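Re: your question from the hallway

Yes, I did run it. Sequences:
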Amino acid sequence: MKKLINRVEDVVKEELEGVVAAHSDLVRVHFAPNYVVRADAPVSGKTAIISGGGSGHEPMHGGFVGMGMLDGACPGEVFTSPTPDQMVEAMDAVDTGAGCLLIVKNYEGDVMNFEMAAEMAQEAGGRQVATVLTDDDVAVPRSTWSTGRRGVAGTLVVEKIVGAAAKQSLGLAELTALGRQVNVRTRSMGVALTSCTVPAAGKPTFELGVDEMELGVGIHGEPGRKRARLATADAIAETLLGAIVADLAPTAGAECLLLVNGLGGTPLMELYLMVNAAQRILAGRGLQVTRYLTGSFVTSLDMAGCSLTVSLFDERTRALWDAPVKTAALCW
Amino acid sequence: MKKLINRVEDVVKEELEGVVAAHSDLVRVHFAPNYVVRADAPVSGKTAIISGGGSGHEPMHGGFVGMGMLDGACPGEVFTSPTPDQMVEAMDAVDTGAGCLLIVKNYEGDVMNFEMAAEMAQEAGGRQVATVLTDDDVAVPRSTWSTGRRGVAGTLVVEKIVGAAAKQSLGLAELTALGRQVNVRTRSMGVALTSCTVPAAGKPTFELGVDEMELGVGIHGEPGRKRARLATADAIAETLLGAIVADLAPTAGAECLLLVNGLGGTPLMELYLMVNAAQRILAGRGLQVTRYLTGSFVTSLDMAGCSLTVSLFDERTRALWDAPVKTAALCW
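Structure:
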């Protein structure tokens, strides 16, 4: 295992210490239990948006905390759900009474722990809490980690749009409805060229031959749809977008966002090359890409590969996407 | 070779097509010869800042084109200098008579071609042209690619600060002096955990054992100071910063920027962990880190590893660093 780390048991703690140093203007980090909140939290009168999940997917979610996106994020250990106490404390740190919206990727551990935290916050704390589950991954109908589809890179689209709407003073019920609507209009699928290596395991999560790729891989290295021979960027984009568009069934000429997301070990050069392949294919299928996001945002440790996400936009969601955001990972 | 590409001869062209699609609000791209300019170029009355170099280091330099940083960037083929005709045409596209400052990393091919372009633009075009050479890499006094030290990640610090000063209407002579001053106050050193693989070569540039690292590696995979056994993040940071600080010889309590830069195949989690290690070590050596930048900005294709850069700041350079910037890769 080749990683820039010290002891494997300290990876998340030391990473968060780095975040504290690098981004003290944007966020505060609480340790034991671990959570990240906006530097100016709590923002009075604003519905609080909170997310979280296992570490190893950086910059998701801590890198999305800040003006116009998340109020708080709860990082678990690597590929391990955060615990309810982290979530309850994060809610306490960001909610001033307008309620908390939890954005949760559909994995069994995350769903269970966020549900428990929501109950605790409602019953003991008297908080208003609602949840949006993301399940944008079309690769498999269920997986080793989830009942139903997995939540992957589309989660950041939900977080950005809901975060912008929360800044415009929308209430908890409206934000919940909006988040669910964005999730329903968003689909993703990924491909791995290499496995990731979990620090505590010390060896690759799965084996992949020198000329093989895993189509539809999950962000923890879960099996996808198909092991296949390595193909060209164009052929890979065709396969991923074929599955996405078939599932999304957009109307002709529909407007969308294209997110080309690196999985952690893939350089930007290859991601831009995938942007080119993907936009040509989407245009050929009658979709109108009006917004792009390119970079490594929802990663799987050091995995080489990428995911493609298509999110159908309308005037309202496009305007919310375009609204200013200032976080460590997204800024415009 | 596992890469998201089509034909190796089309990598740069197809990547730039992706940039066109993704960033039409920020930049325009010209093909054959290839160069990237600000969407609003030329900016009347402003001294134009131009950089360039081989592709494979993305987002450098095209990702730094935009408000508050570069006016133009010339990407060569992978790890190959751009040609004088690219540079001359880029100068024609951005200079409105206030002159062009060329920021050039110290590699023989880049230096020669930018010199030739400067002569052509001065003699045939009647342009005012000046050059700042960057040579921030302390690893080796000369290398297979350079006479003297190599220019690496510190180049982006020069580009950001000079770009901000150009926006404040400084003239060519002042910008040249400022760029040289920032370069002199900036030092870097990197480490590779894996080799990169050049698409046209199809195999790793160098061999590295499973428990080995290359200390002081160059951004084209050039040999560094020492092949060593893989060490902890703390020990690596100590080695890199030891070399940097010894060479920089800062006064006690000096203020600096710390740039932790990923080389293309290294996930953000590890970079934040390095931020933590580096800031502790710099504090122990009496340096005051007041600004941080963390991410993969000056890469070496898919190489795993990172570089650390320390740039001494004063009130003026800190303010120029903090000045607004809006490019694909840097935004605040």
